[in-house]
Amino acid sequence: MQWRTAGDRIQTLLDSCAAGGTAAYERAQQLVREVVGLYGAGLERIMQLGDPDLTERLATDDLVASLLLVHGLHPHDMHRRVCDALDRVRPYLGSHGGDVELLEIVPVAATGESTVRLAFTGSCKSCPSSAVTLELAVEDAVRAAAPEISAIEVVTAQPAAEPSVIPADALLARVRSNGSTVHANSWHPVPELAELAPGEVAGFRISDTTVVVCRVGDLPLAYVDHCPVCDDTLAGAQLRETLLGCPRCGTQFDIVHAGAGPDGTHLDPLPLLLRDGVPSVALAEPAGAGA
Q: Alpha-carbon distance 66 to 184, whole Å?
């Protein structure tokens, strides 16, 4: 069960109780509060055991950490949680030629929330769509680690020296001050990706989209199954070190640099991250789909 959607399911059930009248709805809400209070008290008792190793293990488990945050029991402050979240996505950012630095966390006195200010370094070579993949990776990681953050801001970086390189300040250009994004995306768990061996290439059909996944060392990378040179499928493609060769036209694409190919061509990268401990791919929702 994906715990990130549990809150939505609980709210749906509560809303359905409203059909039984005000009294039924209030009883359902009270039941939820009692259950939340009960497991909150249990978590507090566990955290009071004073075992440093256990505390750290609980704090770094995605599910438990989210529950500790709900009850104000997480042992790490916001700055450390954000830093740890950025560290977890740095290997992915590096695969697209970029990195990120936490500049500061600014409290918003009026609301009690905070704004995170980030600066990107490095660049995304030859691939405009890689900006979206980095945006999703960073925003998802930061908001999961620190849900009390109200906004993510990006400070303009120095222009890149190479004219063919996308400036680093464009990496999160689509992140708005309220934390929403221009592109609507849905995450799809694909547990089979965990079985992919280093150097292996596999194809997956995910929500009507064919995806090619390559694994370089410990890093899996996902791309849309489409060769921009011959306009054909990449089915049967082989990986040699970091180059993925199209089996039809023979074009080589550098998959650790956002799928860069010759003459400015590139594959279309897709965000692939561990979510709830399960490899998951983000795909754009059709126009008019849910937010």
A: 24
CA distance 34 to 5: 20
Q: Give me the numbers of helices (H) and strands (E) for the chain, helices first please.
A: 6, 15
How far apart CA 194 and CA 187 sit, in angstroms, is 16
Residue 2 has φ and ψ, to the nearest 5°, of: -85, 110
Strand partners, 270: 222
DSSP 274-286: EETTEEEEEEEPP
Beta-carbon-side half-sphere exposure of residue 199 (alpha carbons within 13 Å):
2
Distance CA 178, CA 180 (A): 6
pLDDT tens, residue by residue, 145-163: 888 888 888 775 554 444 3
Q: What is the pLDDT of residue 201?
A: 92
Mean pLDDT of 82-89: 87
206-210 mean pLDDT: 88
Q: Any idea which of 45-54, 257-266, 277-286 has the lowest mean pLDDT?
A: 277-286
Q: How far apart are CA 203 and CA 236, in angstroms?
A: 9
In the chain, DSSP assigns E strands to 98-108, 113-122, 124-125, 149-154, 165-166, 185-189, 201-206, 209-216, 219-224, 238-240, 243-245, 252-254, 269-270, 272-275, 278-284
- The secondary structure of residue 4, as a DSSP letter, is G
Are 66 and 43 in contact, with CB atoms under 8 Å apart? no
Instruction: From 57, 68, 40, 48, select the one nearest 146 (Cα to Cα).
Output: 68
